[in-house]
Amino acid sequence: MKRISNQEVARIIAEIGEYLDMEGVPFKPRAYEKAAKAVGDLDKSVSEIYASGGLKALEQIPGIGASIAKKIEELIKTGHLKYHDELKKKVPVDLSGLRKIEGLGPKSIKKLYEELGVKTVADLERAAKAGRVAKLEHFGAKSEENIKKGLEFLKKATGRPLLGAVLPLARRIEERLRGQKEVEKVIIAGSLRRWKETIGDLDVLVVSKKPGPVMDFFVSMPEVVRVVAHGETKSAVKLESGLNVDLRVVPAESYGAALNYLTGSKDHNVALREMALAKGWKLNEYGLFKGKKQLAGRTEEELYAVLGMDYVEPEMRENTGEIELAKKHKLPKLIGYDDLQGDLQIQTDWTDGADTIESYAKAAIERGHKYIAITDHTKRLAMTGGLDEKKIRKQWVEIDRVQKKIGAKLKILKGTECDILKDGSLDLDDETLARLDVCGVAVHSHFDLPREEQTKRIIRAIKNPNVDILFHPTGRLIGKREPYDVDMDAIIKTAKETGTILEIDAFPDRLDLKDEHVKKCVVAGVKLSIDTDAHSIAHLDFLEYGIAQARRGWAEKSDIINTRLLEAFLKLLKK
DNA sequence: GCCGTTTTCGGCCCGACTGTTTTCAGTCG
Question: Does residue A44 reach within 7 angstroms of strand B, measured from its CB?
Fold first, then answer.
């Protein structure tokens, strides 16, 4: 059997949808697009799903039916798909590559191929430079110019930026717009408001009676390198970083409906619209309407209420069951952004952190923390100057000194980020581990062990009765490193049996556990911690990303151990 | 092609903007 990645399967299915779109086939393109997204978002590999459950298991995936399941089967078995090959024969182009150029859809790509023989991005570049694109029917000088610009940006593009990279900029833009006198309200919607791990582009919503000056101000912001659209109610710009920012201006009576529409997710919105439709109403970005009469739309709360459901927090809007719960008034009460009492993973200048224990303590007090754990690396991570049994005892003396100096405002817990060795044993002896307040363990080596071995290794580590928390459980670095191959269900099961806490690492390129694992832990009754993994004082502010991740996994306050005050929190640890 | 407390057949979200058009197709979200 061929080993084919989910991404590859998703790409081929998506391409089928686009080829059908070229032909003008109705509805099927959406079905393929949905199926491709479903495969791309899967937690497990499609090959494994097929290996363990066959076609039936594939059909269980929402958005995949009998026909696409068979196609996936063929891909897994042969690495090829005849149907895809046949479609590609008609328009043999680098579809995935060309689709990355902004403004180029399937229909335009087909035309460029048929009229100019454009197959690749390089072909397109040559044709555009020679002025051949502008001569095509329905194309023109501007279309050609836009294609050239799209090509330029494609060369610089680096994929979706991290939430942590975009949020500070988004907040600056929001503040700046708030300062405009024509602006009554401003909010950033879209995936940012849902706190997705990475951000496609920014969707800004403004309430104003005079949109003109707001639009003019927006398109002339200093970061703007290109104005993509500049209309009365909608404008779009590209920033020097490559980020697209859309601005919509609506009247106050449509604010809630527009906010809902722009926040998404698309699937959540479609489900709401279908609900409206079922009642004989219509939902769009201007409101909920019965005929011409507006039933709701001024606020999101009103919109959900009139639809007969509870308000759904943006982090939950993925159409993964939240709508049903909202109708039954059974939504979880998510952990709040002010609910944490402390931070349980901090690296200091004793290893690879930048700041001293004392300066971290002061910074934590400023942020209102009640406790922090000092969790430096251990000796196997020699490059960080990892602590051995002797050196960590010296650190305890320093912690005691700082504790005495700062008094009762903050408890500094003695901790570790102890290395899990290749065989699942730990990098500090049990006697030392037993004396720690908080014992975290983590994998920093042998990322490529076979799944079974990796799983066994981690399970052995967390079965150690001294171990309290498994740090960054899957080891991924978003956009840089895949998670190691590990059976998370088995880890969660063992964590439940042993009372081990799993971490939501809030560092923006980790966010590890990810939302669906958080969900599984909540269901299993496994407790979680939210920690920054700070390597400097500034990183202490990352907690909000971890809280967002917890909320995206439907975690309540009680699921997270460091929402508790010190005494209650310590009772939840193993000893 | 997918899906089902209306349904295994007959539906499938909806609007803004651009660029090319003189009324609309394509793309995007």
Answer: no
User: Distance from residue A288 (CA) to nucleotide B10 (C1'), in Å?
Assistant: 26
* Nearest residue by alpha-carbon distance to C1' of B21: A138
Of A377, A333, A331, give the one whose Cα is nearest residue A351. A377
- Do A268 and A404 share a domain, yes or no? no
Q: What integer pLDDT is reported at residue A556 of this predicted model? A: 98
Do A154 and A121 contact (CB within 8 A), yes or no?
yes
Token pair, residue A152, equals 């330029």
* Residue A158: predicted pLDDT: 61
A495, A526 contact by CB (below 8 A): yes
In degrees rounded to 5, what are phi and psi of residue A248?
A: -120, 135
Which chain A residues 286-305 have CB under 7 A to strand B?
286
Per residue in A491-548, pLDDT (tens digit) is 999 999 999 999 999 999 899 999 999 999 999 999 999 999 999 899 999 999 999 9
Q: Which residue in the block uniquely carries the two structure tokens 């942020």? A: A367
> Nucleotides on strand B with an atom closer than 7 A to protein CB?
1-3, 6, 11-21, 25-29
A361 plus A284 within the same structural domain: no
Residue where one domain finishes, among candidates A327, A360, A389 = A327
Residue nearest to nucleotide B20 (CA to C1'): A138
Q: What is the residue range of A413's domain?
A: 342-571
Q: State whether A243 and A260 are in the same domain.
A: no
Q: What is the DSSP pairing of strand A342-343 with strand A371-374? A: parallel
This prediction has a pTM of 0.84
- CB burial string A98-120: b at 16+ within 10 A, e below: bbebbebebebbbbbbeebebbe
CA of A200: nucleotide with nearest C1' = B29
Give chain A residues 242-261 with Cβ within 7 A of strand B: 244, 246
Interacting residues of A499 by C-beta distance below 8 A, sequence separation 6+: A527, A574
DSSP for A132-182 reads -GGGSTT--HHHHHHHHHHHHHHHH--SSPBHHHHHHHHHHHHHHHHTSTT
Asked whether the bond before A265 is cis by omega within 30 degrees of 0, the reply is: yes
d(CA A384, CA A388): 12
Per-residue pLDDT reduced to its tens digit, A95-125? 988 988 888 899 999 999 999 999 999 999 9
Q: From residues 463-492 of A, which are strand B contacts by CB within 7 A? A: none
